[in-house]
Amino acid sequence: MSKRVGGTSIGIDLGTTYSCVAAWFSKHNRVEIIPNEQGNKITPSCVAWDGTDFLVGEAAKNQITRNPKNTIYDVKRLMGSRFKDSRVQMDIKSFPFKVIEGLGEKPMMVFEHESIGNKCSPEEISSKIIKNLKEAAEAYLGTEVINAVITVPAYFSDQQRQATMDAGFLAGLNVMRLINEPTSAAIAYGLDNSGDIDGPDVKNVLVFDLGGGTFDVSLLNFNKAGIITVKAVGGDTRLGGEDFDEVMVNHCVQEFKKKENKDMSKNAKARMRLKIACERAKRDLSSTTRTSIEIDSFYEGVDFSMKITRAKFEELNAHLFVKCLEHVEKCLRDGDVHKNDVDDVVIVGGSTRIPKIQQMLIEFFDGKPLCKSINADEAVAYGAAVLAAKLSDTGNNKMKELIMLDVTPLSLGVRTCVKDKSVSPVNDMLVVIPKNTPIPTVKQKKLGTAYDNQDNVQIDVYQGESSETKENIFLGSFNIDGLPAAPAREIVVTVCFSIDANGILNVLGEVKPTGYKKSMSVAIFAQR
Ligand code: AMP
User: Fold this and answer.
1) 270-297 pLDDT, tens per residue?
2) Phi-psi region of 444 (alpha: psi -120 to 50; beta: other; left: phi over 0)
3) Which of 46, 221, 349, 391 sits in a 20 to 30 Å window from 40, CA-based?
4) Domains and CATH numbers, the chain
5) Is residue 94 in contact with ligand 1, taking CB distance under 6 Å?
6) Torsion of CA 168, 171, 174, 175, to 10 degrees
7) Catalytic site residue from 209, 236, 314, 344
8) Any catalytic annotation for residue 209?
9) Given ligand 1 and candidates 12, 13, 16, 17, which is best to mutate, with the most ligand atoms within 8 Å of its CB?
10) Does the annotation mark 138 as catalytic?
């Protein structure tokens, strides 16, 4: 699936709200962030259908208020998710575009100009964004681009990773590797600070990455030989700037109702205009303490006008900001590092510009200044481009020396039960690979039969931290039939879990003493 290859390679930061592409330029001996056709270094992760063509990036975002029902954004939140997931259902409620349940419980975006081919899966939408970035890179580099490293939130599940691989494949790329976003930012930080000869031999670095849709926190270890070891990761794949915008939008909807006695919440166009105005106001409030939101002819001919202070914005979002700090605390606990032993706190992602977030972090780390030396918008793509150059043997010596050791973000395990029997399945999660295990890794567990002459076993694979499988993410299952007749516990099924460098899982079940084997790859590619 992913291989080491030569040729031109790019690094892609596929963000919820913005995406960014970078490449290593041997000629200039540096990584360059590649501008899109409008000359901007970040591209909105937005895809629209205008009735004839798909528009991507700025072209799509520019027509969003005119065409909200056919302009898809935030699709990263739907990647690798099931339509029925409660969080997907919550997101769908705020989307102006239609999302239905497709094959395999996949959420599918439906364009209003419905015709065959205008229903798209999250992977298909993402592939259009990736293709757009690939084409921008090809135009800039003057050569065909085949290989890419794509970044994913550290906290992405196996299915979300698979969906990202699939999107890259659909865009015509060979995805050499998926890399966790904070690890990628850490590479950018590491290269930037590798000349720090007076610093300690080993540094603990915390990367706090708060973007448009996802929040990641990673605790890493840097040593002077260029080895970057991830100790622990945490976060939330549905927490970011979009949530702060949504909180503001809901506040404005209520204020408008109070003032004008009009409920505009179901009007997609008005809501979209409000969302854009709120996002702008949020950005303003990072540099000023008060601003106003003004929209002419907002709803039923009535204008919208509201003043908002930074303090009000902070109060409205306090519950979400606190969540970020809770993840930091948990990540430090998981990595067994005291906050006083963190040498640098690196912030990346557009939402880290919010002053309250910075203030909370500084206070948490007892006044330690935050490290802002790497570009919040570009660092993730930069690190991915470094890894892409390394994997395709085109980088410089510093890159060749770079070694990265990542971890799996969520525990992986099984629930075993018996097919077609009245024996009720146990819901306990038997963990095979605990979270924060360094990857790649292979681990196995032996499971004895539960009763005499048991002739089959069903292995359900889950990912998550709950001790009860029903609270975790179901990844897939397989059956092993035809177990030989034997007393309970005599027949042993060995389940072997292996995770590759992309964080993708393969499960093998083997029956001893028969030697019968059955494997399950959750890979979408494998099902083609
Ligand atoms: P990213 O995914 O890292 O590109 O971050 C995008 C998110 O950062 C969006 O939700 C933006 O609204 C948010 N953002 C960008 N600049 C600012 C700013 N100055 N203040 C607050 N949020 C910002």
Assistant:
1) 999 999 999 999 999 999 999 999 999 9
2) beta
3) 391
4) 9-180+379-405 (3.30.420.40), 196-238+319-364 (3.30.420.40), 241-316 (3.90.640.10), 410-523 (2.60.34.10)
5) no
6) -10
7) 209
8) yes
9) 17
10) no
